């Protein structure tokens, strides 16, 4: 199970990096996949780069905790990070966006992150060999 949560955490971090870079490098094109019926244009695209920065920040947090072996802290951080895709899902639903995208992208992301967090928090510490 430890290998599974490690791989899932690494994939989560890489996915966050990928999405964050998409929003930073081409915010207008990335916005269509978010699920809202309309998105900011021109000067409003600054809000989209905020999402990109948020995702990259979470990626760096995941990798910092994963690489330093702080698995319990990573579980708690991932549990907190679950709030981001949940609010993204609620934003899409609350603004008459695509329900399929809200649940299929943001809801699924929240569920995967929450599952990974729960699995990390259930891990037992390995006692050092005597």
Question: Explain this structure to me?
Answer:
There is one protein chain. Helices cover 75% and strands 0% of the residues. It is elongated, with a radius of gyration of 16 Å. The longest helix is centred in the N-terminal third of the chain and has 24 residues, at 2-25. It starts with a helix and ends in an 8-residue tail after the last helix. Helix 1 (2-25) runs antiparallel to helix 3 (46-67) and helix 5 (83-94) packs antiparallel against helix 6 (99-122). The chain has six helices and no strands. The mean pLDDT is 88. The protein has helices at 2-25, 27-31, 46-67, 71-81, 83-94, 99-122. It has 130 residues and is an all-alpha fold. It has one domain (2-122).
**Helical percentage:** over 70%
Individual helix count: 6
Q: Can you tell me the residue ranges where pLDDT is under 50 for at least 5 consecutive residues?
A: none
Task: Find the count of extended strands (DSSP E, 2+ residues).
Answer: 0
- Distance linking N and C termini: 24 Å
In percent terms, what proportion of residues is strand?
under 5%
Count of all domains: 1
- The average pLDDT value, as a whole number, equals 88
**SS content category:** mainly alpha
Instruction: Give the biggest beta sheet.
Output: none
Question: N-to-C SSE series?
Answer: HHHHHH
- Gross morphology is elongated
Radius of gyration: 16 Å
